[in-house]
Write a structure and sequence with these properties.
The protein is 36% helix and 14% strand. The chain is of the alpha+beta class. This is Glucoamylase family protein.
Length: 558
């Protein structure tokens, strides 16, 4: 019994000791659980009350943009997490208000017309609970055109006068100071273009005839040009290169292998020279000498030599050190008809009809006959190709009533122009800015480069030369386009030498360039629409009458 009491006492003491020890030992701190703020997500977007994904076109200058999220926003984070930039990367300011208990931010920027913007919303956007937006988003905005007129209204005839007179300045005021030839483009320094100079020569004939410049001024410029071509400009078997140095007359290579003769460029130059020869028809010594010199330049071209060994085709290029390396036949349908007409018409180096039939027409292979957008196309590639096919050869060749074994050429060019117009109105790629007032696909500058636009190569770029130079074929549609480009887009598209080269309203861009081969057809084809002047002059050449008849053409002009 006594032992039991002792055991109990000892056990109690041990328990008390243990408790005392536990109470005096400091406990380890307890780490509270970490609470991460909940992230949140994008819910909805409206621009001017409409929902259309993340891309909006033709919006006004002061849109209302509502972006909704799954949580209330921290207003302080919006200014740095929501950024609006224009295409050049410049920031755009905006004001903000809030709706739906701050779940929706309402953004109101002040924008410019015909400009592309992006709104970037980053994951730096926070909620009132300090959560972050789960995923960034980008909104694309493109503003529409300013529908107000940029210039005072004038009559249609006054507008045509203005466009012709202003465009002439590229060739007359801006011509190369030494040679008088046309610069390839407004930034090309001493590089002049032979084909574009042919267009410029025809433009100066228009200028004299409409009293934009005097006959004496026009004659003096022609004497400078022809004198340079006769005494300084290099030729190869009588043919000129694509580009020349406007001071020295040396070849300016177009490419590594293209550093010699270019028969198409030569043809476009000769078309202009022969037209001027027929216009400057006075019996005085200066005009008589001019005519004689032009005839000599034409006779010097060895058209038959460009058959490359008597083949039944003409070849485009020849190089003094590369020979026929490019080996490109001039075969239809494209801009090359003028080469065969001039070759067949030559009194010194003519080609027989079989070269035309087999080389150009491909024994009929250039026929098309399909219908596009309700219009039957007699010749050429699918949907017609770029519109310059209907312009370059037909600055001088009159297509009215012109028929041969392969086509009626008025029907061809009219169909080509109508298909191009109908394609742009149908707008299968849904480009903003295409309409019955804004149309025309051809070769032109594009943003960052150059391309031959057409219905089968459509990147959203419209060139004024396409629709305006088609005025003989589509007068109403072309005049509507000219008015739109002048009155509605004139603040961006109209400059010191007429219309700039091209524009894109879908991905806004306006060229600041001028190209001789695009400016020339504008003034020439407007004149052919108005008076037929250049058609009448070129078709009055006795050589052309003989040559075209020999190829099987019939026409009231022949």
């Amino acid at each position: 019994m006594r032992d039991l009491k002792i055991f109990a006492t000892l056990s109690l003491l041990m328990l008390l000791f243990a408790c005392s020890k536990s109470d005096t030992t400091p406990s380890k701190p307890v780490t509270p659980p970490v609470t991460t703020p909940s992230s949140f997500s994008f819910n909805a977007l409206k621009v001017n009350g409409l929902t259309n994904g993340f891309t909006y076109t033709n919006i006004d200058k002061t849109p209302v943009i509502k972006i909704s999220f799954s949580a209330a926003l921290s207003r302080a984070s919006v200014a740095t997490a929501v950024v609006i930039k224009d295409k050049a990367g410049s920031n755009v300011t905006y004001t903000t208000t809030y709706e739906d208990n701050d779940n929706t931010v309402v953004i109101k920027p002040a924008l410019a017309f015909i400009t592309k913007y992006t709104i970037d919303v980053t994951t730096g956007l926070k909620s009132t609970e300090n959560g972050n937006l789960q995923s960034a988003l980008t909104i694309n905005l493109t503003t529409g055109i300013d529908s107000t007129d940029k210039f005072a209204a004038i009559t249609d005839n006054q507008l045509l006068d203005l466009v012709q007179k202003q465009t002439l300045k590229y060739f007359y005021d801006f011509g190369h100071p030494v040679s008088g030839l046309a610069l390839e483009r407004n930034t090309s320094g001493d590089v002049v273009t032979t084909g574009g100079s042919g267009f410029g020569i025809m433009a100066m004939v228009v200028g004299v005839n409409r009293n934009f410049i005097t006959r004496a001024e026009g004659l003096a410029r022609m004497q400078k040009i022809v004198g340079f071509l006769k005494t300084k400009a290099v030729t190869f078997h009588g043919a000129f290169p694509h580009w020349l140095n406007g001071t020295s007359g040396a070849v300016q290579p177009f490419s590594a292998q293209d550093n010699g003769a270019d028969l198409i460029e030569t043809s476009l130059l000769m078309q202009g020279l022969l037209t001027a020869r027929q216009y400057f028809n006075s019996s005085n010594a200066d005009e008589t000498t001019l005519r004689s010199d032009i005839t000599t330049l034409y006779k010097n071209v060895e058209w038959d030599w460009f058959r490359q060994g008597n083949q039944n085709a003409l070849y485009w290029h020849w190089s003094p050190n590369n020979g026929w390396a490019i080996n490109m036949k001039i075969t239809g349908w494209n801009e090359g008809l003028i080469a065969y007409v001039l070759a067949a018409s030559s009194a010194t180096h003519s080609i027989p009809k079989t070269v035309y039939d087999e080389g150009w027409a491909g024994s009929g292979a250039m026929r098309n006959g399909a219908t596009y957008y309700g219009v039957k196309l007699p010749l050429g590639p699918s949907q017609g190709g770029p519109l310059f096919f209907a312009h370059y050869s037909f600055l001088g060749i009159n297509p009215n009533g012109l028929v041969d074994a392969y086509a009626n050429y008025w029907e061809q060019n009219k169909a080509h122009s109508e298909i191009n117009y109908n394609y742009c109105v149908a707008n299968p790629k849904n480009y903003y800015g295409y309409s019955d007032d804004s149309w025309g696909l051809t070769a032109s500058d594009v943003e960052g480069g150059y391309t031959a636009s057409s219905p089968t190569n459509d990147i959203g770029v419209i060139a004024p030369t396409a629709a305006i130079s088609s005025m003989p074929y589509t007068p109403a549609q072309s005049m509507a386009a000219l008015k739109f480009m002048y009155y509605k887009l004139g603040d961006k598209l109209w400059g010191p030498y007429g219309f700039y080269d091209a524009y894109n309203l879908n991905n806004p861009w306006f060229a600041n360039s001028y190209l001789a081969i695009d400016q020339g057809p504008i003034i020439v084809m407007i004149e052919n629409y108005r008076s037929g002047l250049l058609w009448n002059l070129f078709m009055s050449c006795p050589e052309i009458k003989t040559g075209m008849k020999g190829l099987g053409f019939t026409s009231p002009s022949l």
